[in-house]
Amino acid sequence: MPSPRSAGLVAVLMAMVSMISVTSSGTAQARSVTQEKKVVREEDPANLNELRRSAEKSSKALAEATKALEQRQATLAKADKELKGKLDQLRTATVALSKVRRPLADLVQSLYQEPSGGDMAPFMSGEDDATSLRALSDMTYLVSGRDEVLADAGRLYQEQQKLANQAQDLRATKLLVEAQLSVEIDTLRKRSATVVKSLSTALAKLGVRVNQGGRSGAACDPTRVSAVAEYPNGLLPKSVLCPLQQPGRELRADAAIAFVALSEAYKKQFGKSMCVTDSYRNLGQQQAIFYRRPGFAAVPGRSNHGLGLAVDLCGGVDVFRSVQFNWLEANSKRFGWIHPDWAYHSPFEPWHWEYDPKLAAS
């Protein structure tokens, strides 16, 4: 029956093999999804909605693979630490055993080397008295003690060898798993970069000046929207705001891409892009509107405009139940945009539309 320690190591190794299988399966699924998206891109390079979803899925797969690597490294580091502790204990026990063994072994050896001297002389001379019997008993005890010490040393050595082999196998598995995951992560990172590059190219073809205002192309990278959470409402820097086709208007990356895709669909229906009167508002702009139009603007610091997730529209959409409004109401959810419930009645704002990341991801 395997020892508890061996069973634990086997469990660790089996868990790692299982996680490798899960990662490989997940990567295969991600590769399949990417291949499907590639077909879509080849047929319709301007399909921003599909490109955005593909970029977000690639980013999610990359994050999950990176997390799996970190968890695996932590588990293996713990196992390594436990093995190191066991080997340290064995080394300490070896030293202690040697100290006990040395004088006993030396004494037995000296008795055999000098059978005519010392306390063993009466026994070795053949005298059958109490002294020789005591000497015989002492010698038997010493030999027995020596044999026990040698047996303990042998068991200790075997245990050391066993643990050393387990440690070597564990470290070899660790290196293999880390190498495999590193390849997976590198592949996912390259795939994500390729999708983002295609997305930037498509945006540029549609008239979005990705590098407008001295900002980098990362401002329109939907895989980096988590950076927006680092800034307060209404205080987003240009580096996390992606420009729209409409001059001077901007939103956070995922919302901007989805809006451009929605605007392109609107353009195919009505022959022109959507009219936008407002998009991202900084804190000062929100305060000005709040005091100028009380009851028709959110409290500064609480508006979705300040998060780069809302637009105010014109060109017919601002008229409730107009053809444009009804079309947008029926089609906007496909792109992750909604007309919020409150805007139907309190306050009544047919022009106000918001981006819902959860809806867009479905």
From TrEMBL:
Residues 250-357 form the D-alanyl-D-alanine carboxypeptidase-like core domain. Gene3D superfamilies: 3.30.1380.10. InterPro entries: DD-CPase-like, VanY-like_core_dom, Zn_M74/Hedgehog-like. The keyword Protease applies. Residues 1-30 form the signal peptide. It comes from the Bacteria. Keywords: Carboxypeptidase, Coiled coil, Hydrolase, Protease, Signal. CDD domains: Peptidase_M15. SUPFAM superfamilies: Hedgehog/DD-peptidase (SSF55166). GO terms for molecular function: carboxypeptidase activity. Residues 48-82 form a coiled coil. PANTHER family: D-ALANYL-D-ALANINE CARBOXYPEPTIDASE (PTHR34385), PEPTIDOGLYCAN L-ALANYL-D-GLUTAMATE ENDOPEPTIDASE CWLK (PTHR34385:SF1). This is D-alanyl-D-alanine carboxypeptidase family protein.
